[in-house]
Predict the structure.
Amino acid sequence: MSPVSLLVIGAGDRGTGYATWALGHPDRATVVGVAEPRAVRRARLAEAHGIAPGNAVSDWKELAARGRIADAVLICTLDRAHVEPTEAFAALGYHIMLEKPMALDEDSCRRVVAAVEKAGVMLAVGHVLRYTPYTQALKAVVDSGRLGDIITVQHLEPVGFWHQAHSFVRGNWRRSDEATSMLMAKSCHDVDWLQYILGQSPKRVSSFGRLSHFTPANRPAGAADRCVECPVAQSCPYSATHFYGGMLDRGEHRWPLSVVVDDFTPQALDRALRTGPYGRCVYACDNDVVDHQVVAMEFPGGATATFTMTAFTEAAPRRTRIFGTHGELYGDGKAIRVYDFLTRSETEITPSRQGEMTAAGGHGGGDAGLMDAFVGAVATGNPARIKSGPRDSLASHLAVLAAERARLNGTVEMLPGQR
């Protein structure tokens, strides 16, 4: 069987990361084209995959204009640029792996689903948490009935102080009007994950949260607008100079440093921090997304769940407690402990680990798991291999949108049926 041929639309860290899977599995997939407006990123991916010069272009529309020149496409553009290429490539017959979020409003999400269903092509949304060995082991416990009926779930996403500062204060996802809400940008993973684990979508949601810390009101006395010239940087945990400079000193030439510079040198980093967005004081940015949020959910069977996202943690895996009528489960992203009410005994399950639960670490095997499933589905024509298909992803996106409406309006939101 010939390898599945892929186009990559968007050669940022996500697109490059997914494409790298093909280099480790050349018998299963090969990247034959890339569209990326940034010349350095485009050239780097083209060189790594041996892409012919004519198939490395700046605009995805140029590849789409050639018709179907590959089996599938990885769409990894910025969040607001997902719908148009998805519709175009679906109409050409491409199977699609679409980075999350699939789109940013209900109408756009439904357009994505309608496009792939009309074209009869497969869609895998980048909900990589569904594909980790840890998630599969935890879901197996829930599905086995060992916990009895699920009554309550507590789920925490510890974003991490530096990750919040990098992506959601200084970075691309700092403003809801330019990108999307924090809940959609970061935590649609988690709402989707809870839906996957419980096997159903919530019927109503409420939410609370705000931007509390990363504001001018909390700026230390004497702080400069730029970290490179700040007299209080030594006492600031959010110093860009210390964080990115530390990565450079340790030779960690990966995300998130790779977002800040293309050339891993002290000179390039100094220039980026003096002139670019990632060198700004976190108390002097134009950010408006929340730095903490709670979502409360009620499911059709009566189970309830709470999800908490907070910036003010070390960067760590998600943590989950599931309370059932026959037992209790605690998972910390690495190990799973199950307490049995009848025997009063505890069992520990340690799934295989495949990297850290970060973008740089491949999300604990989730990135590789998604690519394995998507390529396998395309190769065999079997969409059942995909755990994050269009209808499931639509349901979780609608829940996220409802939760954000609830936060903004102080309401309890009922989830609409998928019409």
